[in-house]
Amino acid sequence: MEGDVFLIQTSAAESDHDSEADTWAEEPLEYNFYRNNQWHKKIRDSDFEEIEEGDIVLLYCTGNVDQCPKQIKYIYEVDEKLERRGEGNIGVDNQINLSIKRELTRGFGLHLIRIYVNEGRLSEPMNEVGTIGFNVTQVEEQDLETILEWDEDKGPEIRGLDILEENLRENIVEEYGIRGVDKEYEGFEIYEDDDGNSGELYNTPIGEIDILYENSEKNKFLVVELKRTEDTSDVVVGQIARYIGWVKEEISEGEEVEGLIITQTASEQLKHAVEALDNSTLKEFSLKFDFHDPD
User: Fold this and answer.
1) What confidence score (pLDDT) does residue 175 get?
2) CA gyration radius for the chain?
3) Which option is the CATH number for 5-152: 3.10.590.10, 3.10.580.10, 3.40.980.10, 3.30.2130.10?
4) Digit-coded pLDDT (tens) for 241-287
C-alpha cells in the first residue's frame, strides 16, 4: 500500500448527507464514501484537506456501530476526492470515495490502541480515537505497518495484568452491569454523548475514564476507576477526583457526580483516603477459577 495514512472515526449517529446511508458509519461501510462538510471550519479536522487519491484510511468505528464497535476493522484506499455541497461551501472538496483494501482478521480494538500508544508502538495521533468531536487526522505510515503486522500474527501477547483489567471492565459492562457491583447502582446506564461516544473508556482532555455511567431518573453520574493491582495506593484518589471535577464542569449541568474505585485489594492508605471523601466509594474484587472439561 502506498500514500499517506489517515485515521478517520465514524459513528452510528444519523447521517444528514442526503444519501442512501442512514448513518455516518454506513457511508464508508456500505457505500464506500466518507464526507466531512465542516472540515474547513474545524481546525481539528483540517487534515482532511491533505487527503489525496491513493492515500490510505484506517477506519475506526465508535461503540454504537454494531458491525465493528470500538475497533479498526477495515482499511481503505482513496479513489477520488470531490465536492458534495451539503453544508460545505461551493468549490470546497468534502467527500472521498473509497475502496476496501484490507479487512483485518479481527478488529484492532480501542484498548489495544491505548496500550500500543502508551508503549510507543503507535503514534500519539492514534489516541484520538474514542474522543469527543474527533473525525480525521493524519497518522504515521508505521502505524499502518504495525497494525498489519499484528493482524498477520493474529495479535500480540498482552501482559496478563492488561488482560485482567480489560476482562474486569468487560465483565462489569457486558455481563453483570454496574448493579452487579452493588444494588445501589440500579438504574445507571453507560453514558453516551451527543457524538455517539460510549462512556466505556471515555477519553477526556485530562485522561481516560474507565467507565462513565448516568442515571437520568436520579440526575446522577458515576465515574468508575478500575485498578488491577493488589495493595493499590491512594494515588488513585487524586485521579478519580480529577475525573469527577471534569464531569461536573463539562457534562453534568449541575447533576450530582459520584466516584467508584474498584480494585483487587486496597492499601490501608487508600481505605483511609476514600473514607475522607463524601462522593466516592471503594470496592474490592476477587478472582474465581472455573474448572471444566474441554469442549
Assistant:
1) 65
2) 21
3) 3.10.590.10
4) 999 999 999 999 889 999 999 988 898 999 999 999 889 999 988 76
Give per-residue pLDDT as tens, 16-44: 888 888 999 999 999 999 999 888 888 88
Q: What is the pTM of this model?
A: 0.61
**Distance of alpha carbon 136 from alpha carbon 259, whole angstroms:** 32
Q: What are the start-end ranges of the E strands in the chain?
A: 5-10, 33-35, 56-61, 71-82, 95-109, 136-139, 189-190, 200-204, 207-215, 220-227, 256-263, 280-284
DSSP 3-state of 268 = helix
| Beta strands 71-82; 56-61: pairing state | antiparallel
Tell me the residue type at 236.
V
What number of CA atoms fall less than 13 Å from residue 127's CA on the CB side? 17
- CATH number for 160-284 (one of 3.40.1350.10, 3.40.50.720, 1.10.246.80, 3.30.70.20): it is 3.40.1350.10
The reported pLDDT for the residue numbered 131 is: 85
Q: How far is it, in rounded angstroms, from Cα 125 to Cα 148?
A: 18
The neighbouring-strand residues paired with 56 are 5, 77
SS3 letters across 183-199: HHHCCCEECECCCCCEC
pLDDT at 156: 45
- Digit-coded pLDDT (tens) for 98-156: 999 999 988 898 878 988 888 889 999 999 998 888 999 999 999 999 999 988 875 44
As a whole number of angstroms, the longest Cα–Cα distance in the chain is: 66
Q: Where in the chain is the domain with CATH 3.10.590.10?
A: 5-152
Q: If you average pLDDT over every residue of the chain, what do you get?
A: 87
User: Residues spanned by CATH 3.40.1350.10 within the chain?
Assistant: 160-284
| 143, three cell numbers | 502505524
